[in-house]
Design brief:
The protein has an 11-stranded mixed β-sheet, with helices on both faces. 27% of the residues lie in helices and 29% in strands. By secondary structure, the chain is of the alpha+beta class.
Length: 307
């Protein structure tokens, strides 16, 4: 049996104590060809770089070049340990600059003992990985179930689904991590084509008083394996998109859409549903909290200055 590094062991024990649901904290993979390992007193890290094709769909969801640090901090002072790890990582970047470049560190949301190290180095919380366990009861205003009809999307819905999906991207782009690129519209249509044929993700159109006004998309457990390690409760589904037209917001429509999606998800035997939302979005955090979600991981980011 391979011995667990004491830093990994201490980090994982601290995270389990503050948040038993948060996963992916029990180790670090061996560095790959484009990755590197760094170590300081009481902290370990794995570094990597994303270099995205601006014409690809994933280029919509982040800057084109993202330097990432996956860190683990132990010892009596996790803040100091993480701070030293960040300093070594930042020094190794050599003052890199340029447009469409950023730094990113994912950290367990409830591990508040260490996050001051991030804020003091200019990082800000940008993306929350939030989770809802099976059976979580919604709170807040009642859902407008009588006005909302959810139906499976079909190929004839391409125009309305693509329009609402694009509106979701445009709204999230206001917060500085998502970018509406010249290729985004075409990539959205391409990605939706198999979904609307019933292949892969579940996708529903929400009709409000007979008119299409929202969409919900969910990756079932067979497609959500990439995000499943974020939590310790499986099987996992990933709610990849939900958007309601602004004209129907504040009327319980979104809650009705979420409730219908969760009914389907739980009937499929899913234990935990995971989603991402922008932390600065003033609508997302309170809405998803009312639907039973809470953050388990937070991505802290820092944009690099232009040349």
């Amino acid at each position: 049996m391979t011995a667990v590094h004491p830093v990994i062991e201490a980090h994982a024990a601290r995270i389990r104590a503050v948040d038993p649901l948060a996963g992916g904290q029990d180790g670090l993979p061996a560095p790959g060809p484009n990755e590197g390992a760094i170590e300081v007193v009481d902290a370990l890290g794995l570094t990597s770089v994303d270099r995205l094709d601006p014409g690809a769909m994933n280029a919509t969801w982040s800057p084109l070049i993202v330097h990432r640090l996956w860190g683990r901090a132990g010892g009596r002072d996790p803040e100091a340990a993480l701070g030293a790890l960040l300093d070594q990582w930042l020094a190794g970047l050599g003052g890199e600059r340029g447009p469409d470049r950023a730094l990113a560190v994912q950290w367990p949301s409830r591990d508040t003992a260490a996050v001051r190290a991030l804020t003091l180095r200019g990082f800000a919380p940008m993306v929350a990985t939030a989770a809802r366990v099976r059976g979580a009861a919604p709170s807040g205003p009642p859902a407008a179930a009588s006005r909302v009809r959810m139906r499976a999307a079909v190929p004839a819905d391409m125009a309305v689904v693509a329009r609402l999906y694009e509106a979701l991207v445009a709204y999230d782009a206001q917060f500085g991590w998502v970018t509406m690129r010249s290729s985004t519209r075409a990539r959205i249509v391409e990605s939706l084509a198999p979904v609307l044929r019933g292949e892969g993700s579940w996708c529903w159109v929400a009709e409000v008083d007979g008119a299409a006004a929202g969409i919900v998309m969910v990756e079932p457990p067979t497609l959500a394996r990439w995000i499943a390690p974020a939590v310790r409760s499986a099987p996992v589904a990933y709610l990849s998109a939900m958007y309601a037209d602004p004209a129907v917001r504040g009327q319980g429509v979104g809650a009705a859409m979420a409730a219908a999606a969760h009914t389907h998800i739980e009937a499929a035997g899913v234990a935990t549903t995971v989603l991402h939302h922008a932390v600065p979005n003033p609508l997302s955090a309170p809405f998803w909290a009312r639907q039973g979600y809470r953050p388990v991981l937070t991505q802290w980011v820092r944009h690099l200055p232009p040349r």
